Amino acid sequence: MKSVAGKRVLxxxxxxxxxxxxxxxxxxxxxxxxxxxxxxxxxxxxxxxxLADSGCKIKAYVVDVSDRVQIEKAAAQVRADVGxxxxxxxxxxxxxxxxxxxxxxxxxxTEMTMKINSLAPMFIAREFLPGMIASDEQARLINIxxxxxxxxxPRMASYCGSxxxxxxxxxSVRLELEQAGHSHVKVTTVCPYYINTGMFEGAKAAPxxxxxxxxxxxxEVWKExxxxxxxxxxxxxxxxxxVFKGILPTSLRDFVAGRVLGVYKTMEDFTGRK
Length: 274
Prior knowledge:
The chain has a seven-stranded parallel sheet with strand order 3-2-1-4-5-6-7, with helices on both faces. Helices cover 44% and strands 14% of the residues. It is built from eight helices and seven strands; from the N terminus they run E-H-E-H-E-H-E-H-E-H-E-H-E-H-H. The chain is globular.
């Protein structure tokens, strides 16, 4: 896929932050339609209004992606209004913290984290993949996971669990599409370190792991998505955790990550978006 010009693009969590940046990028590249999903109606309408003069068809839907029924109804409305999207960016996500797992309100926080970060991308993909597969046009499914989907970290156990699930599911779907012969549909799994959007306010950088700027991440994801890359991992040093898991005993890996690099302390001052 050389560009999204003339394509229909759907983005979840599109009202603010990274989602808004992806929407702006789709508009700038000449998408035929950009579909915005978000639970924040006020911010959603503001973003839709900002993009309205672009010449691109902008459709905004208030959707709580933690609710499967809402996803199904909104997806049906999208198909009726603009047709199946060629590009779906599963960007919506939440994080709850700064506490150890047993100190959290697990009945609420853990369930909501899993619903939004793990189940919602699955339900959304299930709605739109059949249309992508049936079409002969190039299509893309972008699933925004996290470096926390590759590396365990204290004070974010539920978040890590939700993102590990997202990584395993997303890359499995990629393999399924390849195995089934649907080579025109590509899946990209995105695993960035903390991004400076406010969502991870208070989280710390670590040696070799700087806090990322949103524009840098969007640039890289957009470029690799069009190529059909399987993974986008930012920064590349996140991949050291995969190496450590493969070659080091657990106790030594924990010593390097926790004591030497300080990764296991990065959430101690986390406050999140207020």
